[in-house]
C-alpha cells in the first residue's frame, strides 16, 4: 500500500478532484445525482491513482516480480512511453466504467459535448493525474535519495570519528606503559621487594586498561576504582610524598569520561611537580557541576620526569578525544598556585 505520507497527499488530491467534479455536477444536474456520482468517483479516482503509483513502482524499481528495472526513471523516452500508454489505458477504462454507471444519451446531449469531446476531456484529466503522480514520485525519490546519502555520510563520518578516537587512545596506552616501566626500572635498583609488589599492582592496573581499551567512555565510578589502584603504585614509590583526596558526588558516579583520564592527570602532576616528603604533592579530585576537577599544588620541577620520553601527547590527545565526542573540551589553568584540570562530564544517556 501507499506509505502514510503519500496517502495524505494523494488523498488530498483526490478530494480536490471530487470536489470540483461535484461543483460541476451541481450546476448541470440535481444534487441527488451529484452525490451519487461523487460516491462512485471518490473510490474510483483513488483506485486509479493507486494503480498509477504501483505500476510506476513495479516498472522502475527492482522487486519480486522483476529482478531488474524494466524502465530507468532517467530514461525520458521510456518514461514518456509509459505515461502515454497508461493514460490511454486508464482513459478508456474510465470511459467504459462511467458510461456504464451514470452516463446515458440524455446526459451527453445536456452537457453539450459529443462522445469524442467527452473522451478528450477524460483523456486530458487522466494525463494531468498521471503527470502529477509521476512528478510527485520523482520529487519524493530525490528527497529520499538525499536523505539516504546524508545517512550514509553521517554513518561514514561516525565510523571515521570512532576510528580516529581509537587511534588516539592507542597512543595513550604505550605512553602509560612506558612511564610505568620507567618507575619499575628505578625501583629494581633500590628495593627489589617493592619492585615485585609494584609489578603485581601494575598487572592489576593494566587489566583495567585491557578491559576498557575499546570503550569510548567509562563511568566515573569505574575510573575512580582504577585511579585508586594506580595510586597504590605511586605510594610504593613515593610513600608519604603524595596525598590524594576524593570528593565525588554520588549522582556523578554514573557520568562518563574517556578511560585513563584521571590516570593521565595524576601522572602529569607527578611528572611536572616536586614530590618530596618535605614538599608533598597534594592532589584533589572533586566534582563541581558537570565537571570533574583534578587540582594539585603547583610546585614545578626544574626538569620534569620523563620530559624526553612522554612525547607530549597526553593532554593534547585528551583534548582531541573530547573534540571528537563532546561539545566541550578540557581546560588546564594555573590559579592561586594550583594547577587545575577541568574535565567535562558526559551525560550517561549519550
Automatic annotation (TrEMBL):
PANTHER family: SENSOR HISTIDINE KINASE YPDA. This is Histidine kinase. InterPro entries: Bact_2-comp_sensor_kinase, Sig_transdc_His_kin_internal. The keyword Membrane applies. Residues 166-241 form the Signal transduction histidine kinase internal region domain. GO terms for cellular component: membrane. GO terms for molecular function: phosphorelay sensor kinase activity. The chain crosses the membrane at residues 7-26, 38-56, 77-97, 117-140. It comes from Aquimarina spongiae. Keywords: Kinase, Membrane, Transferase, Transmembrane, Transmembrane helix. Pfam families: His_kinase (PF06580).
